[in-house]
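Bench notes, afternoon.
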Amino acid sequence: MIRTQTSSPFLPAEGIHNLRDYGGYEAADGSRIKKGLLYRSGQHRDASPADLDAIQALDIRTIIDLRGESERDKFPCKRHAEFDAEVLAYEGETSNSPPHEGGGGKVVMTPEKARERMIAVYTRMPVNPAMIEMFSRYFEALAERDGGSLVHCFAGKDRTGIAAALLMHALGAHHDDIVAEFLLTNDAPDPSILERQSLPRMEAVYGTIGPEALRNLMGVHEDYIATYWTEVTRDHGSVDNYLSQTLGVDEARKVRLRERLLT
């Protein structure tokens, strides 16, 4: 049985796609992941003044920006005048041109090709050195830093979705809840925010993209996260081994994370 939240996790936003709290789920030993500490979203380039006020009010002390240098240069995040959180980011590129950003070469973007391109993103991600470093820093920050955190990438669905999923696993959430939280991206209240940011760039490369192909590129599917889980399990035996051996999330760090993030 899927044990989900009882209220909407989405926060109102005018220019930030998929802004939500990913706490509230059942975790280890009958506890729950705390609400009001863990947030995720797409980039903040188009954040409105009201969005910035809302983010500031959340008392977020750490932002984990999973985008690479070129993404940050092209799409700098707007910040509140009193913004004082620490931003963790990678000095280099974190992704090899994800399809939803218009990368991967000029093709006729059929629904099948769109899904194939997205599966390739999730196949590469577990062994991407930049993502390994950023996921490791994400876990370290959540274990050691006080206050709320926000993790985001460009679209807030792929790199960000896996970050949230791995944390939920480390906290002992049921896998059905991990998948359900991942799929909530498809319920984001205003997908036009992401379309405005991505669609002109994608269509400049791919030409006109039909509705089903667009959903595959801008949304998520269960087989996306299943691909990541399968790759990790095949290479490491289990997700827990991957967390420990590759991301530095050993039993001591799991205990620390659970002490800080469970209630």
